[in-house]
């Protein structure tokens, strides 16, 4: 068990009950633990550093270098690694994921030798289809946060675009993300930067024993587990990207496979991961969210509006993340277009009263 400051432990104790048995309810997950916001900010720096001892009771001065607290470069975020990446037992999923992620990166090395304008166009198109329509619009804003509704046929079509991003089936992705919001930047957060930048970016994907403890339950997305379509995707997930890759190779050849599948997938992976890492370390905070979320311009552009992450953590339910006119949010524009076509409804936005309640003074923001 990981050590935590008394304030953190008390705050987390109530929250942990939701996933230690049958998981929190969908409604509870969507509320994202508003009541802990006030205390979380003060306790954030105490994530692992109070008491002078590690989870194993080792005094701070006696810890190995990799276990000692540190501040992430050019930020105010304090971190401490609890787990060695290499000097630990890897389970079969850790090894499989590492091999697959590494293999996809290696395949990208063929990109300079297979370039063509057609392959580039195909890769960019699939970046939009899987990255924006699949991840930011479907998996994130519609399924995870219920920011808007669409006809079921469109909801399922958009979710299928997310399947092709190779970030996991919808139920798994949504469940982990809801846990992230419910326990943001606490020891139960699957990808907090308080365990280091690499952990929040991709390292958490390769430590599945810990992930199972933190977010292995699926009780927080019963709204999806009851639907046969999402159950089917959970059972057959691996076959869909494989079939798409085979069709891409058969129609477009090796170059299309490299640009439209491998390079595009790796690009979307890192953009998505950067929301979890970069947007929790570098940027500005406009809202008193009680966590490390930041608004980051670069990620806001590359991730189709997801980089306005402090806005998002302030108002998780909001279909619009770029709340200011200058905060470009391509996913929000897409939702507005669906609304224009009569395909999006029940669009949720924060009220002025809610915004005034959480807004930080300009000097602080």
Automatic annotation (TrEMBL):
Q: Per its UniProt record, what Pfam families does this chain match?
A: FA_desaturase
Query: What are the record keywords, sorted?
Result: Fatty acid biosynthesis, Fatty acid metabolism, Iron, Lipid biosynthesis, Lipid metabolism, Membrane, Oxidoreductase, Transmembrane, Transmembrane helix
The pathway to which it is assigned is: Lipid metabolism
Where does this protein reside within or beyond the cell?
Membrane
Q: How does it sit in the membrane?
A: Multi-pass membrane protein
In the record, what terms sit under GO molecular function? oxidoreductase activity, acting on paired donors, with oxidation of a pair of donors resulting in the reduction of molecular oxygen to two molecules of water
Q: Which cofactor does it need?
A: Fe(2+)
State where it is primarily located: membrane
Q: Which residues cross the membrane?
A: 95-114, 120-139, 242-262
What's said on domains?
The histidine box domains are involved in binding the catalytic metal ions.
Q: Which family does it belong to?
A: Belongs to the fatty acid desaturase type 1 family.
The identity of this protein, by name, is: Fatty acid desaturase domain-containing protein
